[in-house]
Each structure stands twice: as C-alpha cells, then as structure tokens.
Specification:
globular; two-stranded antiparallel sheet; 12% strand; 113 residues; alpha+beta; two-stranded antiparallel ribbon
Length: 113
C-alpha cells in the first residue's frame, strides 16, 4: 500500500472514531430506562430505616406497593404508572424521597385557618 493510501485509510479511521465519540457523548449520561421508579425501600432497621433503590415499575407494583404496610413502615413511593394505570404516591411520595426518605414536616403558617 502506498503512502497516500495509508494516509487516506488512517484519516478515514480517525473520522469514524471521532463520529462515534460524538454520538456517544450526545446521549445523556444518566439516561435510565423509562420504567424505573426511584423509591425509598423500608428496611425494618431503626438506625437505617430506608435505602434508595430504582426498580422497574413492575417491581414497584408487584413487590413494593403493599410491602411493609402491616409493620407501619411502608416503602416511600412516588406516583407511578404501570400497565397504563397510574398509582398514587404512598408514605409521602416524591416529597419524602427528596427529603432524604423522611416525610416532610408540615408547618402551619396561618394557625387561624
């Protein structure tokens, strides 16, 4: 292979690598599958009562939505959709998740109401 053919082949390879890098970098780094739901999973521990996990919507519905309710420490779950049905939040929902897996405290700014 002559010098100009090698140079052309190298240039083509570099262009392909650069194009691939641009395509990958254009994708969001934290793109999660759309069916994932971030919840606070109740552990039953007094010192570490919740862990944050992101199971599929099917896993939330089938394994978490009613779990631990009998213990009085259910999972904290935001509103989510599974099989076309939207389920309401539980145990403080998204606000509790954003508050470190703790139900936000309510402060009455108008005690006359």
């Amino acid at each position: 292979m002559n010098t100009s053919a090698r140079t052309f082949a190298r240039t083509g390879a570099l262009v392909a690598v650069a194009a691939s890098a641009l395509l990958v970098s254009a994708l969001p780094a934290s793109a999660a599958p759309a069916d994932k739901v971030t919840i606070c999973h109740a552990t039953g521990s007094a010192t570490n009562p919740y862990v944050v996990i992101s199971p599929s919507a099917a896993g939330v519905y089938n394994g978490h939505y009613r779990e631990h309710d009998s213990l009085g420490q259910g999972d904290i779950i935001p509103t989510f959709t599974y099989n076309g049905v939207t389920y309401p939040e539980k145990n403080g929902g998204q606000a509790a998740i954003e508050n470190g897996c703790k139900a936000p405290t309510y402060v009455d700014d108008d005690p006359t109401s």
